[in-house]
Amino acid sequence: MKPINRFEYPPELQPVFAKAKKLEWISVFYLISTSVVVYLTMGNSQAMKTAYFEDILSLTPSISFLIAARIFHKRPNKDFPYGYHRVVTIAFLCGALALFSVGAFLIFDAASTLIKQEHPTIGIKVIFGHEVWLGYLMIAAMVYSTIPSMILGRMKLPLAKKLNEKNLYTDADMNKADWMTGAAAIPGILGIGMGWWWADSVAALIIALDILWDGYTNLKQAIFDLMNQIPKNVDDRHTDPLLLQVEQKLKHQPWIKEHAFRMREEGHIYLGEAFVVPHEHDGQLTMRIEKLAQEVSDLNWRIQEFLIMPVQELPQTNAQEGRPGQNNPEIT
Amino acid sequence: MHRSGYFIFYLSCFLLLATSCQDFPKDPEKTLEQVSNGTLKVGYSENPPWVVKGPEGPTGIEAELVRGFAKTLNAKVEWQNDTEQNLLEDLEEKKLHLVIAGITDDSPWKSKISFTRPYTEMAKKKHVLCVVMGENAFIVKLEKFLHQQQSTLENRLQP
């Protein structure tokens, strides 16, 4: 049985992890630059203000990934005997909470400008002696903050799936969905130019709703993770088929009469325990348990620790749904 | 790649639409249209050397800028003298088009009305004119005029 070890990705995933880190650094610098550009051209537009907040907030998944990447593989010690894996989920929760609360605030803000009928004022900016309507600069800023972001998102998505990395997945997904921001803000600004004062607030409202939605889905996921929900795939949120393999493994042991097991996620890795009722108690039991635990851990790099507990009969508290290995409808 | 393709297509359609309009941006309440060949309603509050009360309407740097701007629009100026507070409240209610009172861009009125971009800077204070909110064609016209006056104005203000 292997203890929770200093975690490292298996050799074949090391370059993927390195690439993900590199892309996240690029994202951080890119997002800082877009926030500056959007801030400088923001003027009086509510849509631009909302887009600015979105840019700042979309930094949180990247930063939490990079911070977590430095911490999660630390060796367990006396004070933290289970290691540092949960740091990933905590980082994720913080980002989600920020998104959710700022999203809610921005919806309120956009709605109140709409109700108060505040007409956005957009004047000119003088650039190298040329008089340019600030609205055109806003549009340029939005194009800059949208298109590279979509490309980065597309590059990060497959890496996140391979690494089973939620922060990275959320980040990639948010980047990919960034076209929404551009697609709302640009017509909003052009609408102001057409003399439709409400276009700006409506665009801001759409962007704020998008932020709130991201916040809600991430918050839900972070809470489920912290409550030890059964392991799910990062992308489609279905129960990981790996659990079926574990179930098969346990089922095909001739020395096991009955069994039940449960698994949970901690960051990228899975931890779990099985209760088994052996047929007979001979001197081989310890050896068999050790061998089986090793075989289960060898199924995939994600299974970091799998404990096997021999019992006289299966714990009754685990009846029905609580027995994920057997009657759980989620698996079958 | 589908979605991003649509997105770029959609974007270029909008941009094409926008740039094909000559009068862009437009006013939601057609202020520029009404003022041109009509009346420019301006409130003033004394604040020398920017606004100085005179027998035939105000004089001073800002008053002269307004007269110059009105001339480019072929508009007659209708002056209204009051306290800064009252004038800005009238401006907020769109009873005036412009207010001059030697206001700088750090004024707390910023959220209720609009300021033009600073037309000059003196003693580290950026001077602005107050404009009715959201009438973007009118504001762009005024800001362009102020920008063109900038060099002559700075020569005059040199000590």
Widest beta sheet: strand line-up of chain B? 2-1-3-7-4
The helix content of chain A, as a percent range, equals 55-70%
Radius of gyration of chain B, whole Å: 18 Å
What level of helicity do the residues of chain B show? 40-55%
Describe the sheet with the most strands of chain B: 5 strands, mixed
CATH class of chain B: Alpha Beta
Low-pLDDT parts of chain B are none
Chain pair forming the biggest interface: A-B, 30 and 30 residues
Radius of gyration of chain A, CA atoms, in whole angstroms: 25 Å
The structural domain count of chain A equals: 2
Q: Which whole number gives the mean pLDDT of chain A?
A: 85
Backbone structural class of chain B: alpha/beta
Order of helices and strands of chain A: HHHHEEHHHHHEEHE
The appropriate CATH architecture of the largest domain in chain A is Up-down Bundle
What kind of oligomer do you see?
heterodimer
Which architecture of chain B per CATH? Answer: 3-Layer(aba) Sandwich
Cα distance spanning the termini of chain B = 62 Å
Q: How would you write the strand order of the largest sheet of chain A?
A: 3-4-5
Average pLDDT, all residues of chain B: 85
